[in-house]
Model the fold of this input.
Amino acid sequence: MLNTTKKITAVFTAPRMSVAMAAMLLGTICLLPESGNAQVVGQCVNCHTMHNSQGGVSMSATSTVYQSLTKGDCVGCHTGGPTDLTDNNIPKVNHTGAPASTLAGGSFYWVATAGGNLSATGHNVKGIAGADVLGNVPPGGSALASQLTCAGTTGCHGDRAQANEYTALSGSHHAPNQNAGGVAGAVDGSTLANSYRFLNGTKGIEAADWEKVVSSAAHNQYYGVARTTDATVAGTISALCGQCHGAFHASSAAHAANDVGISFSNNMTSPWVRHPTDFDMFTVKAKEYGDYGGNLVNAYVPQAPVASNSIAAVKSNVMQVAGDAIVTCISCHRAHGSDQADLLRWDYTTMSAHGGTSTSGCFACHTTKDT
Done:
């Protein structure tokens, strides 16, 4: 294996091949991460080809010609077998068999092999899964111009002002990651390369192993804000989700059409009509949320992650000060997909109020609802 170095973020662009073909590509691109640096270094030949021909044979895993002189779509690097999470130190977010566990973002496996109600188990990215049963209309949002992609105008990663996926991510893999304030792993969203997982403008702290090994002390640190109005604050992970699922992040009368039979002017306070995002549980610590992670230490709960308004360091304990236990979209959902409906982190149908002493799922935050 050629000696190459790279910190790979959970990004995959322009998928145009089957899972089988993507798996074939894994052997052709071997990149290793360098802690605190997203800049690619090493042998160019591992990813690129000049003329796409050697001895009359295509240099790519298939006969397809790919942009930017690459040997294949990046999804090939991020596809692995059921037990592969970071094979060759590359994060796997798509699997050829049902994975027993996943990285922080989950896996596309379930939506790629969807049948019946499993169609809601992941984002229906073009080239990985068929179109969503809702068409190209994200729940709580407006219609996209085409099926969801990994990057670009109809994707999550890269510059969403660029329609082409390659153009949307152009330069990001080769640009140096200038960690905010010199803190290893922290990115401030100032540039695409300096954005959390290449989610343009998003802030956070990236776990070096993408949460392959996760605990209250070792995890991604998501950025959030404590909102008291319906305004969207740039840079938060929930605001990123809200670019497509706007009605789920907002709560003003502007979205009253989505709330049949409900009339309100601004419901950023209780009683809620939809689950709040960018909401600080610390502000209501005296209520049911005070026992998140255990009331003696309030340890961060990886199954139900919360964000912070500070990305100075990863937080092991929360509910200590205002702004360190902020509810986000991904407190309940996994970005790529999961084995549960609606990309949830747990089985919502098994949540039973006052059924025991559970501290998982919904009860990780709503701690008094099961006692």
Remarks:
- Residues 19-25 form the longest helix (7 residues).
- The longest strand covers residues 79-80.
